[in-house]
Amino acid sequence: MRVCAVDLKANEANVVLLDSDNDLFSVPECRAKKITLPSPEAQESIQHFHRTMSKLIEDYQVDKIIIRERQTKGKFAGSSAGFKMEAALQLIEGVDAEVFSSSVMKHTLKRHPIDVNLKELGLKQFQENAFLAACAYCNKDKK
Known about the structure:
alpha/beta, 5 helices, 6-stranded mixed sheet
Protein backbone atom coordinates (compact mmCIF):
# COMPACT_ATOMS: atom_id res chain seq x y z
CA MET A 1 0.00 0.00 0.00
CA ARG A 2 1.25 3.48 -0.81
CA VAL A 3 0.18 6.35 1.42
CA CYS A 4 0.70 10.05 1.02
CA ALA A 5 0.95 11.70 4.41
CA VAL A 6 0.30 15.43 4.64
CA ASP A 7 1.15 17.75 7.51
CA LEU A 8 -0.57 21.13 7.09
CA LYS A 9 1.24 24.17 8.53
CA ALA A 10 -0.15 27.66 7.86
CA ASN A 11 -0.51 27.73 4.05
CA GLU A 12 1.89 24.84 3.32
CA ALA A 13 1.31 21.13 2.86
CA ASN A 14 4.37 19.06 3.78
CA VAL A 15 4.17 15.80 1.83
CA VAL A 16 5.74 12.35 2.32
CA LEU A 17 5.12 9.16 0.35
CA LEU A 18 5.47 5.84 2.18
CA ASP A 19 5.21 2.31 0.78
CA SER A 20 4.18 -0.40 3.23
CA ASP A 21 4.50 -4.08 2.36
CA ASN A 22 4.50 -6.87 4.98
CA ASP A 23 5.94 -4.69 7.76
CA LEU A 24 8.62 -3.28 5.45
CA PHE A 25 8.56 0.44 4.77
CA SER A 26 10.23 2.43 2.03
CA VAL A 27 10.15 6.11 1.15
CA PRO A 28 9.94 6.53 -2.63
CA GLU A 29 11.32 9.64 -4.30
CA CYS A 30 8.70 12.37 -4.73
CA ARG A 31 8.91 15.49 -6.89
CA ALA A 32 7.25 17.62 -4.21
CA LYS A 33 8.21 17.91 -0.56
CA LYS A 34 6.12 20.99 0.14
CA ILE A 35 3.16 22.50 -1.73
CA THR A 36 2.13 26.05 -0.92
CA LEU A 37 -1.27 27.70 -1.12
CA PRO A 38 -0.21 31.31 -1.92
CA SER A 39 -3.62 33.02 -1.65
CA PRO A 40 -6.01 31.01 0.53
CA GLU A 41 -8.81 33.50 -0.04
CA ALA A 42 -8.71 33.13 -3.85
CA GLN A 43 -10.77 30.39 -5.50
CA GLU A 44 -8.21 30.03 -8.29
CA SER A 45 -5.44 29.37 -5.76
CA ILE A 46 -7.43 26.63 -4.00
CA GLN A 47 -8.31 25.05 -7.35
CA HIS A 48 -4.62 25.09 -8.34
CA PHE A 49 -3.70 23.39 -5.04
CA HIS A 50 -6.40 20.76 -5.63
CA ARG A 51 -5.19 20.07 -9.20
CA THR A 52 -1.55 19.90 -8.10
CA MET A 53 -2.29 17.42 -5.33
CA SER A 54 -4.64 15.40 -7.55
CA LYS A 55 -1.92 15.05 -10.19
CA LEU A 56 0.65 14.05 -7.56
CA ILE A 57 -1.71 11.40 -6.15
CA GLU A 58 -2.45 10.08 -9.64
CA ASP A 59 1.18 10.07 -10.85
CA TYR A 60 2.49 8.23 -7.79
CA GLN A 61 -0.48 5.82 -7.62
CA VAL A 62 -1.33 6.62 -4.01
CA ASP A 63 -3.84 4.34 -2.28
CA LYS A 64 -4.62 6.55 0.72
CA ILE A 65 -4.10 10.14 1.84
CA ILE A 66 -3.32 10.58 5.54
CA ILE A 67 -3.85 14.09 6.87
CA ARG A 68 -2.30 14.77 10.27
CA GLU A 69 -5.03 16.09 12.56
CA ARG A 70 -4.75 19.65 13.85
CA GLN A 71 -6.56 21.31 16.69
CA THR A 72 -9.65 23.31 15.81
CA LYS A 73 -9.53 25.57 18.89
CA GLY A 74 -6.99 27.05 21.23
CA LYS A 75 -3.46 28.34 21.06
CA PHE A 76 -2.26 25.70 18.57
CA ALA A 77 -5.34 25.69 16.35
CA GLY A 78 -4.92 25.22 12.61
CA SER A 79 -5.33 28.16 10.26
CA SER A 80 -8.26 28.69 7.93
CA ALA A 81 -5.90 28.07 4.99
CA GLY A 82 -5.03 24.68 6.47
CA PHE A 83 -8.67 23.68 6.74
CA LYS A 84 -9.27 24.75 3.13
CA MET A 85 -6.32 22.59 2.02
CA GLU A 86 -7.67 19.71 4.11
CA ALA A 87 -11.03 19.97 2.34
CA ALA A 88 -9.32 20.12 -1.08
CA LEU A 89 -7.43 16.92 -0.23
CA GLN A 90 -10.61 15.18 0.90
CA LEU A 91 -12.27 16.07 -2.42
CA ILE A 92 -9.65 14.33 -4.59
CA GLU A 93 -11.50 11.66 -6.55
CA GLY A 94 -10.40 8.06 -6.70
CA VAL A 95 -8.54 7.97 -3.37
CA ASP A 96 -9.61 7.86 0.27
CA ALA A 97 -8.46 10.67 2.53
CA GLU A 98 -8.42 10.27 6.28
CA VAL A 99 -7.73 12.79 9.01
CA PHE A 100 -5.48 10.82 11.34
CA SER A 101 -5.99 11.50 15.03
CA SER A 102 -3.02 12.88 16.96
CA SER A 103 -3.87 10.75 19.99
CA VAL A 104 -3.93 7.53 17.93
CA MET A 105 -0.69 8.61 16.28
CA LYS A 106 1.04 9.18 19.65
CA HIS A 107 -0.24 5.90 21.06
CA THR A 108 0.88 3.92 17.99
CA LEU A 109 4.33 5.54 17.93
CA LYS A 110 4.73 4.71 21.62
CA ARG A 111 3.96 1.02 20.92
CA HIS A 112 6.00 0.95 17.68
CA PRO A 113 8.78 3.56 17.91
CA ILE A 114 10.38 4.75 14.68
CA ASP A 115 14.14 5.11 14.90
CA VAL A 116 15.43 6.36 11.56
CA ASN A 117 17.49 9.24 10.30
CA LEU A 118 15.42 11.54 8.07
CA LYS A 119 18.46 12.55 6.02
CA GLU A 120 19.24 8.90 5.23
CA LEU A 121 15.70 8.59 3.86
CA GLY A 122 16.12 11.73 1.77
CA LEU A 123 13.62 13.70 3.85
CA LYS A 124 13.86 17.24 5.21
CA GLN A 125 13.25 18.17 8.85
CA PHE A 126 9.94 19.90 7.99
CA GLN A 127 8.64 16.53 6.68
CA GLU A 128 9.14 14.74 10.00
CA ASN A 129 5.53 15.05 11.24
CA ALA A 130 4.13 13.82 7.92
CA PHE A 131 6.57 10.88 7.96
CA LEU A 132 5.62 9.97 11.54
CA ALA A 133 1.93 10.18 10.66
CA ALA A 134 2.46 7.81 7.71
CA CYS A 135 4.41 5.33 9.85
CA ALA A 136 1.87 5.46 12.66
CA TYR A 137 -1.00 4.96 10.23
CA CYS A 138 0.67 1.90 8.70
CA ASN A 139 1.37 0.45 12.18
CA LYS A 140 -1.92 1.34 13.88
CA ASP A 141 -3.50 -2.11 13.54
CA LYS A 142 -0.41 -4.08 14.64
CA LYS A 143 -0.40 -5.71 18.03
